[in-house]
Amino acid sequence: MNKLIAPSILAADFGNLQRDVEMVNNSDADWFHIDVMDGHFVPNISYGMPVIQAIKKHAKKPLDVHLMIEKPERYIETFAKIGADIITVHYESTIHLHRTLSQIEATGCKAGVVLNLTTPVSVLEDILSKCYMVLLMSINPGFGGQKFEDITYNRVKKLRKMINDQGLSTRIEIDGGVSNKNIEALVDAGADTFVAGSYIFKSNNQIETIRDLKALANS
Ligand code: DX5
Ligand code: ZN
Question: What secondary structure, in 3-state letters, does 73-125 show?
Fold first, then answer.
């Protein structure tokens, strides 16, 4: 499976948002990763609809919208309308997960589920065939720039086995502390899609950092 890189806009310079969106457009990156936080599901508030619309206006690649909000079912149609291409919701945030995924599919967006760092991957067994992608958090969600947690490798392996056993081709995305130090081991474990925020945006040459990450993931 082709390995994808999704720079996290949370780490961009919001005073120069268009410049950073163009940087991603001109890079080897595949998607824009868009983190929406409500201050309830996670202890931080990021940005909402007007900022996403501004990103969409200039973005030439799909928007991968990661909802860290309580009861995401209240806003699915809105996020689809303003330009989301992929919408992922946390398993821990919505009571009727199957219904929420159907709601995402009905908008025409691709649907995915996110698991917090220690939510067992086994909870996905009966919903996997409905997931375009599973996002495994490799940090506690809410903030960029945190340290990658090594328990993720084993979680990826278990999830990849579950996906293979069901004969599916579900993507596994990793979010939190991804860098050149762990991306190859994550690929070996079975992941194929990588969010990276601070590692890309804090680097001196962002285009080169993205190119190198993508090359490492596909080597
Ligand atoms: C955190 C977000 C991440 C974050 C990743 O809750 O979901 O997408 O931006 O940032 P880094 O790559 O800096 O850990
Ligand atoms: Zn995210």
Answer: HHCHHHHHHCCCCEEEEEHHHCCCHHHHHHHHHHCCCEEEEEECCCCCHHHHC
Residue 198 Cα: closest atom of ligand 1: 13
Shortest-distance atom of ligand 1 to CA 42: 6
Please check if 14 is assigned to a binding site: no
Nearest ligand to the C-alpha of residue 8?
A: 1
Q: Is pLDDT at 103 greater than 90 in this prediction?
A: yes
Model pLDDT for residues 15-27, shown as the tens digit of each residue? 999 999 999 999 9
The predicted complex's ipTM stands at: 0.99
Looking at the CA of 7, which ligand is closest? 1
Q: Quick one: what percent of the chain has pLDDT higher than 70?
A: 100
Pick the CATH number of 4-172+191-201 from 3.30.70.260, 3.20.20.70, 3.50.50.60, 3.40.50.1820: 3.20.20.70
Question: 68: helix, coil or strand?
Answer: strand
Q: Ligand 1 centroid vs 176 CA: distance in angstroms? A: 5
